[in-house]
Amino acid sequence: MIEATAQWSVLTVDSMNDPKFAKSWRQLNDQVFVELETGQPSMQLLVTCGVPGAAAGQEAGLPLQMAVTDPGLAVDQRQVLLSTFARTLVDELSCAGDPVIPAQLLR
């Protein structure tokens, strides 16, 4: 069973500089971070998504965290699914700053 989730993250963009998180998250561009492969059947993204009308700095202080989980999918399949899910959600939410979600999340 595939599970896709999106929520406002308890992590901030600034927390990605903390050594505790810097070891497990990689910055893909100014707006997107991916959790490195953990051996678990899931993959996560942190995306700065400025919601129109929100307080200044909301996108960095309260980014979106999206995940795809399915033990039956290979890493490359989860990567494609999460990238597509994230791009669709960012588009539907009309995120300010137009975050760019790469098709390839892990290099």
Give a description of the structure.
The chain is of the alpha+beta class. The protein starts with a strand and ends in a 15-residue tail after the last helix. It has three helices and five strands; from the N terminus they run E-H-E-E-E-H-E-H. A five-stranded antiparallel sheet has the order 1-5-4-3-2. Strand 3 (32-35) and strand 4 (42-47) form a beta hairpin.
Strand content: 25-35%
Widest beta sheet: strand line-up: 1-5-4-3-2
Following the backbone from N to C, one meets helices and strands in this order, namely EHEEEHEH
Mean pLDDT across all amino acids = 91
Major pleated sheet: 5 strands, antiparallel
- How many beta-strand segments? 5
Which structural class matches the secondary elements? alpha+beta
Radius of gyration (CA) equals 13 Å
State the separation between the terminal residues, measured CA to CA: 26 Å
Helical residue percent?
Answer: 10-25%
- How many helices? 3
Shape field: globular
Which parts are unreliable, with pLDDT below 50 for 5 consecutive residues or more?
Answer: none
In short:
By secondary structure, this protein is of the alpha+beta class. The chain is 24% helix and 25% strand. Strand 3 and strand 4 form a beta hairpin.
List the helices and strands and how they pair.
Blueprint: E1 3-8, H1 19-22, E2 25-29, E3 32-35, E4 42-47, H2 58-61, E5 64-69, H3 75-92
Antiparallel strand pairs: 1-5, 2-3, 3-4, 4-5
